[in-house]
Amino acid sequence: MLRQLFTFVLVVASVLAPFGVFAQNNLGCRLRSVTVTVADAKGKPVTGLTANSFQGQFRGQPVRIHHARMTSGSPRFVVALDISGSMERSLRPSGIAWTIAGNAIESAPPGSAVGLILFNEKIGLRIGLTQDRAALLEELKAAMTTKGIIKGRTAIRDAVMEAVAMLGRPRPGDVIYLITDGGDNMSWTKESEFTMAVATSGARIFGVLFADLFPTTPEEREGPGLMSGLSKMSGGITVVWSSNLTPGGRRTLDSLLRRLYFDMQNYYELMVELPAEIDKPHDWKLHVVDDHGRKLSRYEVFYPRTLAPCPSTVQTNGVTR
């Protein structure tokens, strides 16, 4: 009997407004661009919203929404594939994890720059942003046939930090695409450093999480919560998958991935003005409202729950940008 588990966690990343905007408006980090996805009760994207359709709150005070526009872009993204020992079943020759990574590279929109990271407890392969899809696929194919490559423990946070460094200066729509079985048992990155780096990078974390229906290890039990938390903090979709890849299962997974790719490329950009400066990472609220300012419960708003300070320089993996 086919068993499958999938969950969507649609949230959207905070993207820092260009630094010139801060200087021109004398608002410092209070003025910033935020990327938002809105879905109806069936999960379908909602279009046609304006700035008046949104209502925000930060530390109990209203957030001013200056404008909202729907964007279809060609984001930069980094594919980060977990090659730790616990991924062996999904990474056997021609396994589904390799297929998903290759499909992500092939599905990148024209003009997008794509990077590739293979990681376990260390970074095994790092290829910087490029538009050469063929070269990336060749590197992926070579790794797939390398004996002994699938081994070690898992350092998800360290891999995300490497991807943040690869992306460099934030651009709207940036994506980090994690393919993993979740659980982090080897990262050296401190939690506070990680939260600050991801929130200020503006990169949205999307992912495919391979999870057992009956997890037995602490890492397996931690996986869904960790990936959900990364999505809520940064933005994107996490698809949690537990299934044998029968023809029916493959069709379901293909459908989920198409939805994932769509949300990578289509989103609202909101210019928001916070009522106060941010001195440390802090959560805020955002809703869709009607003409009378009443919250519309039939819509779900997916947005960066955590906003971070906007320092003039951001240090990532020891590199100041």
Question: What does this 3D model show about the protein?
Answer:
The protein has 321 residues and is of the alpha+beta class. Helices cover 29% and strands 27% of the residues. Strands 1, 2, 3, 4, 11, 13 and 14 form a 7-stranded antiparallel β-sheet that branches. Helix 6 links the parallel strand 8 and strand 9. Helix 5 packs parallel to helix 6. The longest helix has 19 residues. The N and C termini lie far apart (52 Å). The N terminus and C terminus are likely disordered.
| Largest sheet properties | 7 strands, antiparallel
Proportion of beta-strand residues: 25-35%
Average pLDDT confidence is 83
What is the rounded distance between the termini?
A: 52 Å
What is the count of helical runs?
Answer: 8
How would you sum up this structure in a few lines?
With 321 residues, this protein is an alpha+beta fold.
SSE map:
Layout: E1 14-15, H1 19-25, E2 31-39, E3 54-58, E4 61-72, E5 77-82, H2 88-91, H3 96-106, E6 114-119, E7 123-130, H4 133-144, H5 156-167, E8 175-180, H6 191-201, E9 204-210, H7 218-234, E10 238-241, H8 247-265, E11 266-273, E12 282-283, E13 285-288, E14 300-302, E15 306-307, E16 315-316, E17 319-320
Parallel strand pairs: 5-6, 5-8, 8-9, 9-10
Antiparallel strand pairs: 1-2, 2-11, 2-14, 3-4, 3-13, 4-11, 6-7, 12-15, 16-17
Helix pairs in contact: 3-4, 5-6
Features:
single chain; alpha+beta; 29% helix; disordered N terminus; disordered C terminus
